[in-house]
Amino acid sequence: MTLITTTALTKRYPGGVTALDGLTVAVEPGIVALVGANGAGKSTFIKILLGLLPPTEGSSTVLGLDPTGESDRIRSRVGYMPEHDCLPPEQSAAELVTHLGRMSGLPRTAARERASEALRHVGLYEERYRQVGGYSTGMKQRVKLAQALVHDPDLLLLDEPTNGLDPAGREAMLELIHRIGTEFGISIVVCSHLLGEVERICTALIAIDGGRLLKAGTMAAATTVRDVLVVEVDEGTAELEAALMARGLSVTRDARTLLVNASENDDTADVIVAAVADLELPLHRLDRQRRRLSELFSVPQKEVAGV
Ligand SMILES: Nc1ncnc2c1ncn2[C@@H]1O[C@H](COP(=O)(O)OP(=O)(O)OP(=O)(O)O)[C@@H](O)[C@H]1O
């Protein structure tokens, strides 16, 4: 079943801001990156999917359900990690997550057990009876993730889960999200304005810009390879550059990396390997250059529309 669909989804806030503007997407299950600059409309999109906000126009489905009429059913199957810190400081993580499990409809004992389990998954089991107010930012983010997981959802909507974290904390959070998505088989939508980090852990992408769809599809398609081969040798870069040019290849050099145009000749990789062997150089790397996700946002929108 398609995870999320939207048709011409539009949200205009009172006061005239158009946060979403005719967004049409269909997303398959997996770990989905919802990317866009600050103010692009990501939080608005998530809130509409949860049924917390009505759209001005258009429609959507989440797990086949309609957020405008079936938001209770959606919230029983979807876990939501909001962007901002909204945790009561005097409660322990165990109390808080149990309470939110109860609110999701779990009986008391099941809520307590599920809360312990969710806190174990996010690495807070040992600390679960401490007051949340004394937690670090990383621990607070993990509590928010645990409460999103407590009722065993089919889909997690995570709004900027790495916000406020230092590089090590971000890395750990991304690893955790990836593990939850792959080991538990839960679909996840991760909102982020940091392209590099979602590029690594997500299988699909929805990119929005000013409330409009910039691109949607698999991450592999979004970062498709280019007709450029990347060559690195441990020594002899200049010699190799000259040898490749002598063999008629078009080469540009970027420090220790040689970028070789491979669009005109299928044998380019073979020619490179032969040149490296002739010069008896230690080959360190030879592969196709991938397009980075960040490049999506640095090209004019009309160039991307047809991709
Ligand atoms: N309740 C509101 N009333 C009026 N305008 C709003 C409201 N909420 C959001 N907006 C505006 O709608 C636009 C999209 O906001 P939204 O929060 O959805 O973007 P975002 O991509 O999640 O950004 P951020 O990452 O900064 O939260 C912004 O211009 C924002 O100022």
UniProtKB/TrEMBL annotation:
PANTHER family: ABC TRANSPORTER, ATP-BINDING PROTEIN. Keywords: ATP-binding, Nucleotide-binding, Transport. This is ABC transporter ATP-binding protein. Pfam families: ABC_tran (PF00005). Residues 4-235 form the ABC transporter domain. Coiled coil: none annotated. One of its GO terms (molecular function) is ATP hydrolysis activity. InterPro entries: AAA+_ATPase, ABC_transporter-like_ATP-bd, P-loop_NTPase. Belongs to the ABC transporter superfamily.
